[in-house]
Amino acid sequence: MIAYPQFDPIIFEVGPLAVRWYGLMYTLSFLFAWPLLNYRAKRFMPQLTSDHLGDILIYTLMGIVLGGRFGYILFYQFDYYLHHPLAILRVWEGGMSFHGGLLGGIAACLLYSRKSGIPCLQLADLAFPIAPVGLLLGRIGNFINGELWGRVTDVPWAMVFPTGGPLPRHPSQLYEAFLEGVCLFILMWTLGNKPRPAGFLLGLFIMGYAVCRFLVEFVREPDAHLGLLALGLSMGQWLTLPMFLVGLGLLLRAQRKGAQAA
């Protein structure tokens, strides 16, 4: 067993202002995203100006944060937030849903596409290869917060989390950081390093995330108020199944369009 580092979720405080690791990870995600987005834009969409890229980043940020928060409320804690509406604003405490964030990010692409006239799938293919960076840092934020830990286990690298009871558990946040962050980034960046039919990279990202999340959920503790659902699968796994099908559909569509254009 490995001792869990006793992180303080608050980095420092200045009067009533508290800077938290979880919020810092979101900030770092977008700081790292900016040069990567610039690199991809210069290579694949050189017609985009710095103003375009700034707007894309702002739209994406708002879409992911709002979608992630309301997705968590809708999918995981609807009854709680219905009776505690002010708690919706306490995003620094955690409580973000990737599935909601994905929908919010796609909605942001659609909105900006209507504003700019740039096809939505091209915008998505430009931005989504960078998304695993945010997933990596977000999962590290979960680990520092000591939340979303795994199921009880006796593996040598198990940890006892402060809020997870006295038994050692899988550090599933780190598994997700590696699979959804590192591995998915390498896959996306490698296959996205040359022109692809519109929608290919978005489909690849959705499928890749769905597979990674589905596998990790077998060792991640399901939400206590939900438990395991039909067929012994968690809510996270059930939500990834339609994601996989959507991603597969986008991939097949992109390959068909690419074959027709060849």
UniProtKB/TrEMBL annotation:
InterPro entries: Lgt. The keyword Aminoacyl-tRNA synthetase does not apply. A 1,2-diacyl-sn-glycero-3-phospho-(1'-sn-glycerol) binds at residue 139. Catalyzes the transfer of the diacylglyceryl group from phosphatidylglycerol to the sulfhydryl group of the N-terminal cysteine of a prolipoprotein, the first step in the formation of mature lipoproteins. It comes from the Bacteria. Pathway: Protein modification; lipoprotein biosynthesis (diacylglyceryl transfer). This is Phosphatidylglycerol--prolipoprotein diacylglyceryl transferase. Belongs to the Lgt family. The chain crosses the membrane at residues 20-37, 57-76, 96-114, 198-216, 228-252. PANTHER family: PHOSPHATIDYLGLYCEROL--PROLIPOPROTEIN DIACYLGLYCERYL TRANSFERASE, PROLIPOPROTEIN DIACYLGLYCERYL TRANSFERASE. It is a multi-pass membrane protein. It is found in: Cell membrane. It comes from Magnetofaba australis IT-1. One of its GO terms (cellular component) is plasma membrane. PROSITE patterns: LGT. NCBIfam families: lgt. Its EC number is 2.5.1.145. GO terms for biological process: lipoprotein biosynthetic process. Keywords: Cell membrane, Lipoprotein, Membrane, Transferase, Transmembrane, Transmembrane helix. One of its GO terms (molecular function) is phosphatidylglycerol-prolipoprotein diacylglyceryl transferase activity. The keyword Transmembrane applies. It holds the Pfam family LGT.
